[in-house]
Design a protein that fits this description.
The complex is a heterodimer. By secondary structure, chain A is mainly β. Chain A has no helices and 11 strands. In chain A, strands 2, 4, 5, 9, 10 and 11 form a 6-stranded mixed beta sheet that branches. In chain B, strands 2, 4, 5, 6, 9, 10 and 11 form a 7-stranded mixed beta sheet that branches. A 4-stranded antiparallel beta sheet of chain B has the order 1-3-8-7, with no helix packed on it. Chain B is globular and about 45 Å long. The N and C termini of chain B lie far apart (36 Å). Classes of the chains: A mainly beta, B mainly beta.
Chain lengths: 110, 113
């Protein structure tokens, strides 16, 4: 099945800095989602982005399906952006479940 | 519209005890999922249900059973809890079609002593 790898595993930023998180996947995907797991453990949907580019406020994401990677951009980071960012993908023919990467733990310092 | 709800939020069990985790969604989704998350890991699929009346095993089904009670509800049962089942459990439902998005509940933090 699909394998999902995320980098970097950990990231420490000063408030106001920008960052790029990367997600590589091993096969073609029908679904790719980015989630933010906040310090209370809640998983928050950020983007559904199997291909193309989307933006939502300070966050944007780009998936290049032909090259099997996705990027999540965070601009002007805030302390509330801290947490773990997960990329998850679903391949064709699967039962619909998502395969998760191990996440990028982001800490934004004031 | 509450989305996906889970009960309980926290639970402590002794080895060998049984319990059922409840999940409900009000988005009229056909597919529902149970995942577990262990420290430093992403989520792994335990069981899923593609539609009412059907269930199938995922990546880590051993020690669990599920019931798709109706379209809204999907429960996960631990018959004889083991310390290896200490984890955070997430339920999700899936909106199929043009925007194929999964929505997650708030999670149940389970500790087995």
């Amino acid at each position: 099945g699909i394998q999902v790898e995320q980098s970097p595993p950990d990231l420490i930023l000063q408030e106001g800095a920008n960052s790029t998180l990367r997600c590589n996947f091993s096969d073609s995907v029908n679904n790719l989602q980015w989630f933010h797991q906040n310090p209370w453990g809640q998983l928050i949907n950020l983007f559904y982005i199997p291909s193309g580019t989307k933006q939502n406020g300070r966050l944007s994401a780009t998936t290049v399906a032909t090259e099997r990677y996705s990027l999540l951009y965070i601009s002007s980071s805030q302390t509330t952006d801290s947490g773990v960012y997960f990329c998850a993908a679903r391949g064709g023919g699967s039962q619909g479940n998502l395969i998760f990467g191990k996440g990028t733990k982001l800490s934004v310092k004031p | 519209n509450a989305g996906v709800t889970q009960t309980p939020k926290f639970q402590v069990l002794k080895t060998g005890q049984s319990m059922t985790l409840q999940c409900a969604q009000d988005m009229n989704h056909n597919s529902m999922y149970w995942y577990r998350q262990d420290p430093g890991m992403g989520l792994r699929l335990i069981y899923y249900s593609a539609s009412e009346g059907t269930t199938d095993k995922g990546e880590v089904p051993n020690g669990y059973n599920v019931s798709r009670l109706n379209k809204r509800e999907f429960s996960l049962r631990l018959e004889s809890a083991a310390p290896s089942q200490t984890s955070v459990y997430f339920c999700a439902s899936r909106e199929a079609g043009g925007v194929d998005t999964q929505y997650f509940g708030p999670g149940t933090r389970l500790t087995v002593l």
